Amino acid sequence: MDKMEFSTEEKQLKIIKEINEICLNHNFQLWLRGGWAIDFLLGKITRSHSDVDLVTWIEYREQLEQAMVNAGYKKIPVSAFQTDFLKNTIDVSFVFIRLSEEGDITANGFPDWIWRKDALPTNKYNLQGISITVLNPQQLLDEKIVYEKGTGRKLRAKDIESMKIIQGIIETIR
After folding, report:
1. What is the DSSP letter of 134?
2. What is the DSSP string of 100-157?
3. Phi/psi at 47 (nearest 5 deg)?
């Protein structure tokens, strides 16, 4: 009997569910970012995604990396700011954040990138049976703006479209 083929979206959702469960089991706080965050905010899949983007606290890094490796993920160290993983052809990216001495949320290794005070909401969003926290939509929008300014690289068409969708989400929340 042939093995059932899963779409990339199905594989990515399975990965999101698995990582969410790993973090819940270890009491690690976790937030979705990027395209999947938008889809969870909307409660529907809006487009295909190239990867899964997540955020967690730097103090979880060592234990999280070990738990991911134990769950069959290949660890790909990137920087003080990020660790990537690969499992079943799905790329996963973790950005690590910290609280500064002043109480600001910053991306580890980028102390000049101060996040919004409300960047990390605790309410969960649901999509296809998965319930997970997502970055504040305004933080998602700020991230796109900081990316262009910080890297000097122009935003891609999908980034511009994501910004329009996020702005729409923000308008409906107000």
Report:
1. B
2. -TTS-EEETTEEEEEPPTTSS---EEEETTEEEEB--HHHHHHHHHHHHHHH-PPPPH
3. -165, 170
The angle formed by the CA atoms of residues 83, 61 and 50, to the nearest 5 degrees, is 30
Cα–Cα distance measured from residue 130 to residue 16, given in angstroms and rounded to the nearest whole number: 8
**How far is the C-alpha of 38 from the C-alpha of 34, rounded, in Å?**
7
pLDDT tens track for 17-75: 999 999 999 999 999 999 999 999 999 999 999 999 999 999 999 999 999 999 999 99
Domains in the chain: ranges and CATH: 8-136 (3.30.460.40)
| Of 91, 25, 21, residue with least CA distance to 53 | 91
